[in-house]
Amino acid sequence: MRSLLIVPLFVALVAGATLDFNHYWTAQDINNYIDELVSDFPTIASAVNVGTSTEGRPIRAVRVSKDNVANRPLVIVEAGLRAREWISPMSANYILHEIVEHYYEFENILDNVNFLVVPLVNPDGYEFSRTSNRLWLKSRSVNGNGCFGIDLNRNFGHLWNTVGGSSDPCSDSFVGTGAFSAPETAAMRDLIQGNSANLALYLSIQSADQMVLYPFSHSATTNPSNVAELRNLANSVALTLMGQNGRIFTSGGAGLLQPAASGSSIDFVAGTVQPDLVFTLETGAGGSYGYDVPESEMAEILSETTHGFLTMAEYVANNN
């Protein structure tokens, strides 16, 4: 695996602005970057319209396929489910920066694997967190009685609303009025199901518990049938992450290492589509709450997270 840059490169956008990976981007910046990638690298990157948020913002993805070969094992990367976890969408964008802009460094992976990267599933909540309430976690659906938003990682369909969520529309862990009642999760469901035939790995990037987790979130004792394979790869990824900057990462079952909760994206994928490999990568922490990583610490965490992702991607490339 090549050594990633600790101080990321500047990215020139088509509109004349200059973005870099030392600052957090707006939702519009992310869309601009997607447009730039697919314009500059048309033989490897294409844009996918995933859906539309509650407030009408686009939810977009980038499909990465060398020479546009469709029938390869597929890795889906989902980021930005929770609004205040700004380092999550930035990590997905940095992954795209590496595997698209520096595609020639990853020939073994790109010859054998396609990617579908959704940098920002929750653009409404993300922008509200950026402009109005840094601690905001949910989407921005109108729930009534002055309450807003659904915890999107409690709204997916597998065993929805059985453990770990809240039916209170004002709660941070509000599960919604039904499975996939949020347009954001419904859009992700359709994307996942529409690409299930080749799906080999699903990765949810969240922050910032410094963990590599595999299903199931809803139970400490229920595991997929290939739990030994998941455990071994999670351990390898955690070792890779720890080898970058010395942060301690833990690996194991999501429902064991975190409070049990149903309705997560990884439980939906593992419980219904059932690809071999499903993980959550909880990034390195910083700031006052863990997820509010200062911009001065972004570069290390983005590089670190990308190394963890590449360990998974190489595993798929070498084992399918």
TrEMBL record:
<feature type="domain" description="Peptidase M14">
    <location>
        <begin position="23"/>
        <end position="316"/>
    </location>
</feature>
<keyword id="KW-0645">Protease</keyword>
<feature type="active site" description="Proton donor/acceptor">
    <location>
        <position position="282"/>
    </location>
</feature>
<keyword id="KW-0482">Metalloprotease</keyword>
<feature type="signal peptide">
    <location>
        <begin position="1"/>
        <end position="16"/>
    </location>
</feature>
<protein>
    <recommendedName>
        <fullName>Peptidase M14 domain-containing protein</fullName>
    </recommendedName>
</protein>
<keyword id="KW-0732">Signal</keyword>
<dbReference type="GO" id="GO:0006508">
    <property type="term" value="P:proteolysis"/>
</dbReference>
<keyword id="KW-0479">Metal-binding</keyword>
<comment type="similarity">
    <text>Belongs to the peptidase M14 family.</text>
</comment>
<keyword id="KW-0862">Zinc</keyword>
<keyword id="KW-0121">Carboxypeptidase</keyword>
<dbReference type="GO" id="GO:0004181">
    <property type="term" value="F:metallocarboxypeptidase activity"/>
</dbReference>
<dbReference type="InterPro" id="IPR000834">
    <property type="entry name" value="Peptidase_M14"/>
</dbReference>
<dbReference type="GO" id="GO:0005615">
    <property type="term" value="C:extracellular space"/>
</dbReference>
<dbReference type="GO" id="GO:0008270">
    <property type="term" value="F:zinc ion binding"/>
</dbReference>
<dbReference type="Pfam" id="PF00246">
    <property type="entry name" value="Peptidase_M14"/>
</dbReference>
<keyword id="KW-0378">Hydrolase</keyword>
